[in-house]
Amino acid sequence: MKFHISKRDALPWQKSLFVHVVAILLAVGLIAVLCMTLTGQDPLSVFESIFSGAFGTTRRSWVTLQELSIMLIIALALTPAFKMQFWNIGGEGQVLIGSLTAASCMITLGDKLPNAAVIIIMIIASIAAGAFWGFVPALFKALWNTNETLSTLMMNYIATQLVAFFTIVWEVPKGSGKIGIINSDTMAGWLPQIVNQHFLPIVVALLCTASLFVYLKYTKHGYEITVVGESQNTARYVGIKVEKVVIRTMLLSGGMCGLAGLLLTGGINHTVTTTIAGGMGFTAVMVSWLAKFNPITMVFTSLLIVFMDRGASEVATSCGLNESFSDIMTGIILFFIIGCEFFIRYKINRTKKSGKEA
Amino acid sequence: MKKLKRFLALALAATMTFSLAACGGKDSDSSKGNKSGVKIGFITLHDENSTYDKNFLDAAKAACEATGAEAVFKTNISEGEDCYDAAADLADGGCDIVFADSFGHEDYMIKAAKEFPDVQFCHATGTKAHTEKLANYHNAFATIYEGRYLAGVVAGLKLNEMIDSGKITADQAKIGYVGAYTYAEVISGYTAFFLGARSICESATMEVTFTGSWYDETAEKTAAQALIDDKCVLISQHADSMGAPTACENAGIPNVSYNGSTASACPETFLVSSKIDWAPYFEYIIGQVADKKDIDTDWTGNLSTGSVKLSEFGKSVAEGTDKVVAETQEKLESGDLHVFELEQFTVGGAKLADDYKADVDTDADYTADTVVVKDGYYSESEFRSAPYFDVQIDGIKFLGDPKF
């Protein structure tokens, strides 16, 4: 008996969903086996801890939703660039520069302008800074066809070093290398709290999801992005200015990352550190890919990643396992989800024995 | 499709089997036999893979073992809103005390302290408790400069041995020091170490370089190597990786370590290590809460409380080191000797003024606000627990041009 593999037509969504569910169940099964054999831990208590870490109390649920929102905004930001096959892996730097700009407004303008003015300037400046961080690699690409994977990555390091530099300028106390909470007395430049401090990012994320969905699916810009992504030659043939689309899309991508940075500094942490983006700029690449660049699906893929991440600390706390173990779990789940794509795109056929082969 | 169904059934069955096999969540072990009835939550910046955090985690486990308090650990908590979330979550979870170990956690601990007035928030290395004036927020540190001074004595004896054996001449006795930041804690540390060494070896000088990070193995190794290349004959460091000790072991240069012995990794060159033992502090705060007593706003552990410790000596220390160190320690404990005696150092060629002020109350303008000289010595860690020694004494030079 022999097998051969052939490409299959698009699978109906029900079947595709089914394959994904099976993949996740298998991953969970494997994790359970690993849990028991390697650590002697009872897998149910590990799963229970993960869930409790993410949704165990009202506060934890809010924080999970807040982190989900930031992750989602960054993943959404990267999506239009990816759709046009522009590999923007500079999300981290674009977020950081947005954060740094917001922090610099809070520090330098906090006691000089009325709060509303500070906040408006912060919003504009942070988005513009993020957009600029996306614009530079896009311009290089458009003018000299430089490799954007490298240039966006390099821009991350520049942003990190800038933050490190300004941390020393604004550190309190002297020499400590930390800025601490900015304007903790006056709260100048702190984004307003609606309902509670976690709510604002959630609203922004919802707005971003909806608008990006519409933008990509129903507008001319969105169509142009898709065409450029499919084939630049086709795009040129139909009269799309590819360079213009690349630059415009990267301004959008960087600007949204800058917005995430603004929320991190102005709305959540009220400070800036080199690690404030916490690697989300890179994780968001995976989130966006897993969702196949669909903004709505991205809500669920970010939830998966954030859920596992939030669960991780609880696993470390209550099961005495190192946080690396939850990284392993996330890895297994991702492996199965990405692996199951194979069965969605291809089918395995059994080749019947024929006389000739015998 | 039929096959898929069979497959799914199998998968579900498997999951259910696992679920059944798993019975009863695991309760925290330490809750049994909790004599004090105190529950304490620990927030650390990294986990046990970092020597800095391991020092806290080990002490926490020891103190909870000794007092029977129930411990909850939250590791890998970054210095941002994460810390507030973790602290609030611990408070939600019924902790009587929440402790955080990293300097950058402070503002977020204060935020949580304001929200949970019935929970005690304790923070190591912080500077703001005495100015925030919250009844439930406390800072703690230890007189680690005394430990550094003693380690300096060990280094001075080693330098003398090298001079006596003709390995170096007296004016070649240059010590190298790898610091993290130009922060008071680091300045206090290397100055105390240098004064300790110079109290034994009069011709000792020192060269300091900074890495700009608390943990950067490559940078620390490179920095140590740069000092060795610049003819430093003995190295110490205030940073958390194995970078500097490894560079010393490779070059055969004696090394004085920090926060734990590096004897096993660097057997030939390890001299001694000073460290802060946090267990006495943890036992103190657990005891105070159990007895419903107030915790000090600023708590400073010292040699007598067992908070400042020297490790065992390495095999290459000079003969008679243990005796000299024991004598010096006795003098420090009795108060006959102060590390920063004004007679023992000069700044820009002159003795430090009797009314010298340092920035003790943290503010963005670094205002020097408190007279820190007392009875002829710079009184470190008295006006707040965290170090505030900020003068550049003569005899210490810098590689490059650090900004103070």
From TrEMBL, chain A:
Cellular-component GO terms for this entry: plasma membrane
Transmembrane segment boundaries: 21-41, 61-82, 94-110, 116-140, 152-170, 198-216, 289-308, 328-346
Keywords: Cell membrane, Membrane, Transmembrane, Transmembrane helix
Localization per Swiss-Prot or TrEMBL: Cell membrane
Major localization class: membrane
UniProt membrane topology term: Multi-pass membrane protein
Keyword Transmembrane helix: yes
Pfam family, one: BPD_transp_2
InterPro entries assigned: ABC_transp_permease
GO molecular function: transmembrane transporter activity
Protein name: ABC transporter permease
Organism: Agathobacter ruminis
Phylogenetic placement of the source organism: Bacteria, Bacillati, Bacillota, Clostridia, Lachnospirales
TrEMBL record, chain B:
Keywords, comma-separated and alphabetical: Signal
Domain ABC transporter substrate-binding protein PnrA-like stretches: 52-331
PROSITE patterns the record matches: PROKAR_LIPOPROTEIN
GO cellular component: plasma membrane
Signal peptide interval: 1-21
UniProt key word Signal: yes
Any single Pfam family the record assigns to this protein: Bmp
PANTHER family associated with the record: ABC TRANSPORTER SUBSTRATE-BINDING PROTEIN
Name used for this protein in its record: BMP family ABC transporter substrate-binding protein
Source organism (scientific name): Agathobacter ruminis
